[in-house]
């Protein structure tokens, strides 16, 4: 099955990044969100990111212009009905994702593949809310999408081989690399990454080290490009907490218990870069640790 028209649900950080890479790869993209402001902000962000690639000689100015022409937007979810592939990139809440798929299903073509960019939620469970579990799978991009090379492909229990192969071919056309993961909480990347971040937060919570000491130790001692607390702020502390809760609930192991300090920051609305405060305060010229 040829995939040429791609629908993307959610115009946030992940959604606009996914739209960016698909448009550059030559796909026609329809990006939807409930908010007109979010769609306008997404187009502006894509334009800035493409211009950055032009400046760095990664793409030509003509490639940028063609990519922008391939992206359309809509606030009407059902407009995605003509898509060959749909990627849901809404907030990491299962009830919202399930409702999106239930609303979409009556308007889809029989061959349309449904996918979710979820970083932790059961693909099998999401697929069961649709009429096509065999044509449903996880399509997990890493953040920031235009830069990161990996895409995790996750089969649900019913995902058929043609669907998996079609998504593999899409990843290849994007110029990225795919890995296959079984449908377990957190898949591969977040099953390993999030407990590390959570342990860094426990290290801060228990007074073993300061924000600066913890991040510097991992950057210089383990050669990580970002410290774990800096990375948590970049991902979003609400997203980190949601994934840890999925791991804790799904695997029933106390080693995945979210750190109380992570919960406290989320309750305070200190979610990281997107709210200007998390483990660092980003409201000045230079980020300053908040603890």
Summary keywords:
291 residues, alpha/beta, eight-stranded mixed β-sheet, 45% helix, 15% strand, globular
Q: Could you characterize the architecture of this molecule?
A:
The structure is a single chain. The chain is of the alpha/beta class. The protein is 45% helix and 15% strand. It is built from eleven helices and ten strands. The chain has helices at 13-24, 36-55, 61-70, 94-104, 123-127, 161-173, 189-205, 211-221, 228-235, 237-251, 260-268, and strands at 5-9, 28-32, 71-74, 85-88, 113-116, 136-141, 150-155, 177-181, 280-281, 288-289. It starts with a strand and ends with a strand. The model has no long low-confidence stretch (mean pLDDT 96).
> Count of helices?
11
Q: Based on DSSP secondary structure assignment, what is the total number of beta strands?
A: 10
Contiguous uncertain segments of 5+ residues: none
- Helical fraction: 40-55%
Name the overall outline. Answer: globular
Structural class: alpha/beta
The value of Rg in angstroms is 19 Å
Question: What topology emerges from the helices and strands here?
Answer:
Elements: E1 5-9, H1 13-24, E2 28-32, H2 36-55, H3 61-70, E3 71-74, E4 85-88, H4 94-104, E5 113-116, H5 123-127, E6 136-141, E7 150-155, H6 161-173, E8 177-181, H7 189-205, H8 211-221, H9 228-235, H10 237-251, H11 260-268, E9 280-281, E10 288-289
Parallel strand pairs: 1-2, 1-4, 2-3, 4-5, 5-6, 7-8
Antiparallel strand pairs: 6-7, 9-10
Helix pairs in contact: 1-2, 1-3, 7-9, 7-10, 10-11
């Amino acid at each position: 099955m040829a995939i040429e028209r791609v629908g993307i649900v959610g115009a946030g950080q992940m959604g606009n990044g996914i739209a960016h890479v698909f448009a550059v790869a030559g796909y026609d993209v329809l990006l939807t969100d409930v908010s007109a402001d979010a769609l306008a902000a997404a187009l502006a962000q894509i334009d800035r990111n493409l211009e950055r690639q032009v400046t760095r000689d990664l793409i030509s100015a003509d490639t940028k212009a063609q990519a922008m022409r391939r992206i359309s937007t809509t606030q009407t979810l059902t407009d995605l009905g003509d898509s060959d592939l749909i990627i849901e990139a809404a907030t990491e809440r299962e009830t919202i994702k399930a409702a999106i798929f239930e609303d979409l299903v009556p308007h889809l073509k029989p061959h349309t593949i449904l996918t979710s960019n979820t970083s932790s939620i059961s693909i099998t469970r999401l697929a069961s809310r649709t009429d096509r579990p065999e044509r449903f799978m996880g399509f997990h991009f890493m953040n920031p999408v235009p830069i990161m090379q990996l895409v995790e492909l996750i089969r649900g229990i019913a995902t058929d081989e043609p669907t998996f192969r079609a998504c593999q071919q899409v990843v290849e056309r994007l110029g990225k690399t795919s890995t296959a993961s079984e449908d377990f909480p957190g898949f591969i990347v977040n099953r390993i990454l999030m407990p590390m971040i959570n342990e860094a937060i426990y290290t801060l919570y228990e007074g073993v080290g300061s924000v600066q000491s913890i991040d510097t130790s991992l950057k210089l001692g383990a050669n990580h490009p970002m410290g774990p607390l800096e990375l948590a702020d970049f991902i979003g502390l609400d997203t980190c907490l949601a994934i840890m809760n999925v791991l804790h609930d799904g695997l029933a192991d106390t080693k995945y218990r979210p750190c109380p300090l992570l919960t406290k920051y989320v309750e305070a609305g200190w979610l990281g870069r997107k709210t200007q405060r998390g483990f660092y305060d980003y409201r000045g010229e230079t980020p300053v640790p908040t603890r």
